[in-house]
Amino acid sequence: MTPIQTPNIFAPVSTPALAIRDLSFIVLAITGAIFLIVAGFAVYTLIRFGRRPTNPEVEPAQVYGSTQIELAWTVVPLLIVVVLFLVTARYVYGIERRHQPPDALEITVVGNQWWWEIRYPKLGIVTANEIHVPVSDAANPAPTFITVKSVDVAHSFWVPQLAGKMDAIPNKTNRVWIEPRQVGTYVGQCAEYCGLQHALMLLVVVVHPKEEFRAWVTAQQTAPAARAAARAGRDLFSSLACVNCHSIRGTPGNGVFGPDLTHLMSRSTLGAGAVRNTRDNLRAWVKDPGAFKVGALMPAMRLDDAQLDQLLAYLVTLR
Ligand code: CUA
Q1: How far is the CA of 271 from the centre of ligand 1 (A)?
Q2: How far apart are CA 266 and CA 132, in angstroms?
Q3: CA distance linking residue 19 with residue 163, whole number of Å
């Protein structure tokens, strides 16, 4: 298993992220040149005049009131700022004016304390913390348009290799789009302080070849196969308070406070990046989520070992 990566701002693979990198380089070049000129003069002055003995009798040249100098140091910085503003506005407009083609993939990402709900409204898929999208190429552009919302406090949706930050704000709908040109896994993170576990709001975007993406969609749309051995655990799940917060298609569980568990085992982490999604970790998580994620809103269910084993036997079938 590959280790959980960290977000990377230096390797953009999607149209908006590439534009943001280009703009950063332009701004860095201009401001870097200013820095070199100013620092160069400062260092030159220090070296050239630093050792001259001071003579209190001699007054330095007085330049106060020189219109030329004052105009120069007002107008030149103003022009530089105007150039920076215009270049930035052009890039921002270039990203924002992109219209959504009718056949574009649509996703809704909802920030929760402290995880992400991912919905595919047109495909009838609900999942958590992992976004799956098709790769886009020049001949067959396949952009994904993402609606960003929040159910509680302000979060920020940020996958630096794919697009800029977009705030997730309660009672407000924001939009962002991505167009990844390379198959791969890209990591994001909540970028707005949202409480105790702000650091554990990992986002993973898996970019698939088109065929593979269609297969993922079909797998997610299909209900997990019912296994006889999991029957007792399924009944136990249905009888516990789990169902108030979690949904599993085909069970009485239709809660929306916690992640949809229909395809729980298809996801790589638990608790939005808190820990790898393995059988042992899942068991420990159900026993006491706070052991991995202090403050997680899921309570410790106080199940005994027999109940845990039963429940686990069911949960691991949710592929
Ligand atoms: Cu959600 Cu920080």
Answers
A1: 13
A2: 11
A3: 9
What would the pLDDT profile of 67-85 be if each residue is shown by its tens digit?
A: 888 999 899 999 999 999 9
Residue 159 alpha carbon to ligand 1 centre in Å:
13
Q: Is the pLDDT of residue 58 over 90?
A: no
Ligand 1 atom at minimum distance from 113 CA: 1
Question: Which residue is closest in CA terms to ligand 1's atom 1?
Answer: 155
Q: Is the CB of 201 under 6 A from ligand 1?
A: yes
Q: Which atom of ligand 1 is nearest to the CA of 195?
A: 2
Q: Is the pLDDT of residue 16 over 90?
A: yes
| Three-point CA angle 126, 251, 108, nearest 5° | 10
- Go through the chain and tell me how many residues it has: 319
In one-letter notation, the amino acid at residue 51 is: R
- Note the pTM of the prediction, 2 decimals: 0.86
CA 60 to ligand 1 center in whole angstroms: 56
Digit-coded pLDDT (tens) for 209-229:
999 999 999 999 988 877 888
- Indicate which atom in ligand 1 lies nearest the CA of residue 114: 1
Contacts of 95 (CB under 8 A, 6+ apart): 15, 16, 19, 164
Cα(110) to centroid of ligand 1, in Å? 11
Separation of 67 CA from ligand 1 center, angstroms? 51
Give the tokens for residue 211: 């065929």
Q: Render pLDDT for 257-304 as a digit per residue (tens, 0 to 9).
A: 999 999 999 898 898 888 899 999 999 999 999 988 998 899 888 889
